[in-house]
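Re: that chain you flagged

S.,

Sorry for the slow reply, it's been a week of failed gels. I finally had a moment to sit down with the sequence you sent. For the record, here it is as I used it:
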Amino acid sequence: MVQAPQWPGKLPDPVVRELAAQGQLRRYPKGSLVIREGDSGDAVYLILSGKVKVYVSDAEGKEMILAAYAAGDYVGEMALDGQARSASVAALEPTACAVIEREALRAAIHSDPDIAMRIIATLIGRQRATTVSLKTLALMDVYGRVARLLLGLETVREADGRHWSRERLTQQDIANRVGASRDMISRILKELRVGGYIALRDKRFAILRRPPARW
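Prediction finished late last night. Pasting the structure tokens below so you have them in one place:
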């Protein structure tokens, strides 16, 4: 159902709030598809609450996750050039988005050029991240990619004194992100746990000591 957005209080940035106000609110249950790869579209989805994954898949359903985004981020901007969607987006948890059509976005940019500068800065940051990811895939082995992923997870300190990842990841999730098989990920994680480098609890990870550069 589409309705006037009700801001959840998680968008402290006034530029982001201004942009979100141009859209219509849509809610997505966990696991539902927000954007489908190959579809046409001319809207940007600004995340108000929740979290999504951006991924590509083949005809057999094999996925590779490109990124994950949360409140304050936006997805779908690539379709503003009139081309088909280049990736799919799915809700990792219950998610609310402000869906901003192309003309509404153009009007917002016309009234406040800071919005355009914010979008450009985001696109530059994502392009840099893509370059790093491609370099990693090309030059690092699977173990190196897994170690880099684990070290880069956002963490929170808990009662046991350890810093646990906020995000819950299955072995298949990790396999999708680093472009490897689930069996390979299972072996690497087992070795890291036996070696005392990581702890695993409820699909969350804690780094006990920095993994070696090479395995």
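What I noticed first: The first helix runs from residue 14 to 20.

Talk soon,
D.
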